[in-house]
Amino acid sequence: METEMQRFGTSEEDDEDMGLDVKEEGENDEDDDEKNSTPTMVGVDGVHVTSNRTNNRFQHQHQHQQQFQDQLTPQGGGHRRCRPTEEKERTKLRERQRRAITAKILAGLRRHGNYNLRVRADINDVIAALAREAGWVVLPDGTTFPSRSQGVRPAAGASTTVVTSPTSLPLQQNQVASLRGISSTCSIGMNDEACQMKGLYVPSSSAYDSSASTRSQSSHMLAVEVDDGQDDPIIGVSVDTVGGRQVDMRSKLQERDFAGTPYVPVYVLLPLGVINMKCELVDPDSLLKQLRVLKSVNVDGVMIDCWWGIVEAHVPQDYNWKGYKRLFQMLHDLKLKLQVVMSFHECGGNVGDDVCIPLPHWVAEIGRSNPDIFFTDQSGRHNPECLSWGIDRERVLRGRTASEVYFDYMRSFRVEFDEYFVDGTISMIEIGLGPCGELRYPSNPVKHGWRYPGVGEFQCYDQYMLKSLTKAAETRGHSFWARGPENAGSYNSRPHETGFFCDGGDYDSYYGRFFLNWFSQFLTNHADRVLSLAKFAFEGTFITAKLPGIHWWYKTASHAAELTAGFYNPSNRDGYTPVIEMLKKHGVALNFTLPQMGISDPHMDSSEALEDPDGLAWQVMNAAWDSGLAVISENSLPCLDKVSYNHVLEKAKPLNDPDGRHYSAFTYLRLGPLLMEPHNIMEFERFVKRMHGKLIDPILLEYII
């Protein structure tokens, strides 16, 4: 035996190294059972070298081999006839090349496709995995057929062993549970361990499916014998293991049915650079095609930033709305609704910014001679991302206060686009109140070196805010409190590293409480002033204000990152209710960015930041709903897969909420080529239908799977 293998250039070590045995049509299927047989080795002349199904089969094949050898051996003796050496070398080279290519394919499928392929996977395993991914049922004996009612059931008469697991749950009509990164239908509760698993497939109901009770009874079994001629379901489920144990994913794979739930409008945020610095619409033809796709999947409308730095770029009160006029007309013709953001901040330098839109040039000129019109940190560094709230009532902008500048801009927009307000095309106005349009201090600027999850720095050191702080300290009778905290660390400090934010730190001292009260009240007063002007400019229009999701260090006593952002929300105080009450006074809705974990550093353990995005969302949203405010939201990270969409859906329509509270609208970030990819747009269409509370089209579900 060893001599034969050496002669023809094959060895057991070679096969084990590559782990690849390609099975051609017509080979014995019995070698699929790894417990009862080993892979059959084939010589170049087709002679079976080894087989060990049973002793009788071994003797039979040994006799067959001996007869075949006798036919090849001349009567006078001599050695077995073999092919020329060059042909053997070419065969060996082709086989090695084939195996190398197949090995790379398998490695790629395991690494990037989450396919649960065994180490010695062969081409049959690959085909079976791809077939199951496409929605087909592949039985252990290789029988393959569609899972839908139009498929053909395998011929009766053959007893088939079907492998199931506790994940074989009753499924709702036209729903399929599977695991597959972007294309999966796994439920929102799936963790990282579950998402790394591949191969679980449960077909939806078809003409051959049994009742839900039958499936429920079989859900606790590891093997179910299907009798001949019965109408029991034929369900192929590949059970994955983690750490050598079966994973019970009953609670993780059952997907919630949103049919009949409240209608939540879905908007899509347009790209940042859709309007250039000359206020011209960029690539209108391509944009029109994308908008038509959005319309075809029943999106309610789009959101667009109206940048102060573009419209009033060169001369005060000289507004250029040309590009926005063309865009709004396009949206009007498509019958898409429009949410407009009054963006009084700079674009560029933050997470997700792919263009640079600075503040107006004439504002920058003023800033060069008076940099205190911008927020300033303890080191004296100025941040031109937005204007300091200290100049809201200071006439330092060529005879106007910052509040007057904001109002003039909003009034110009309202007059210019009056027809779209009248016909309802413009359905909502969001008022930018700080960096990134959010009501917060720019406490964590990336341009100044901040990295997640640093606590950030207090931004109160421009002359106008220090003047307000001095006045407040003198009113309190402690003029020496007219300063910022001296032991609050730097941008990238952790709370326990500072004397101000650590447990029992100065944040809870007499001075600390005074400073934080003043600091947070300054934020609320700014929003109060600007929103009162916005209500006057946009009377009768639905107005929103955006709050950030500062969720890192939420599980600490001080909530340090929230304190530097302007929200006095330590563990012993509710810092969001004053803001909510101010919004309620103006009848302004809350836009709360859906917090998501690990926003900036995927290599860091999120537990180190003691973050709690769900806890923060619960606090803010319940405070708003309890006050009777409408709540809208948007995602903070890219959202393309089913897990992310399900997370949004659960937040938008909380399960078992006694008052039936839900989002008033949701804005998806953002339109781009990735969303337009066929599979992604179909997944997005399914998300839109569920947000609208509609039934999922079985044809759409078929394509997604």
UniProtKB/TrEMBL annotation:
Similarity comment text for this entry: Belongs to the glycosyl hydrolase 14 family.
Top-level EC class: hydrolase
Active site feature: E438, E634
GO MF entries: beta-amylase activity
EC number(s) stated in the UniProt entry for this protein: 3.2.1.2
Catalysed reaction, written as an equation: Hydrolysis of (1->4)-alpha-D-glucosidic linkages in polysaccharides so as to remove successive maltose units from the non-reducing ends of the chains
Record-level GO BP terms: polysaccharide catabolic process; regulation of DNA-templated transcription
Organism field: Deinandra increscens subsp. villosa
Highest classification ranks of the organism: Eukaryota, Viridiplantae, Streptophyta, Embryophyta, Tracheophyta
Record keywords, A-Z: Carbohydrate metabolism, Glycosidase, Hydrolase, Polysaccharide degradation
Entry protein name: Beta-amylase
UniProt keyword Hydrolase, yes or no: yes
A Pfam family hit: Glyco_hydro_14
Statement: the UniProt record of this protein carries the keyword Hydrolase: yes
Domain BES1/BZR1 plant transcription factor N-terminal stretches: 79-209
Gene3D superfamilies: Glycosidases
Region Disordered, annotated ranges: 1-44, 58-90
Entry superkingdom: Eukaryota
